[in-house]
Amino acid sequence: MDVFELARRYHDELGVKEPSLATMAAEMFDDLGLQMADFLKQNGYSIVSTKFIDYDKSLVMQITKGDKSFEVILRKS
Fold this sequence. Notes:
By secondary structure, the protein is an alpha+beta fold. It is built from three helices and three strands, in the order H-H-H-E-E-E. The chain has a three-stranded antiparallel beta sheet, covered by helices on one side. A hairpin with a 4-residue loop joins strand 1 (46-53) and strand 2. Helix 1 packs across helix 2. The mean pLDDT is 93.
């Protein structure tokens, strides 16, 4: 899958709104963020929001399960 298709999926499935940031997330994390989101959904978590923080090279997913909320951070080292 090319980077632009991955960027579309980051936009559609994870809600990374800015196209350039979705593309940057796809370039940095390939499909890891998408796989992580699928795993979380399969285990009963809901993704509330997602943001890409480019200065930290981090993808932050805010998730909930029941009345608990969490943040999952993917950070490129």
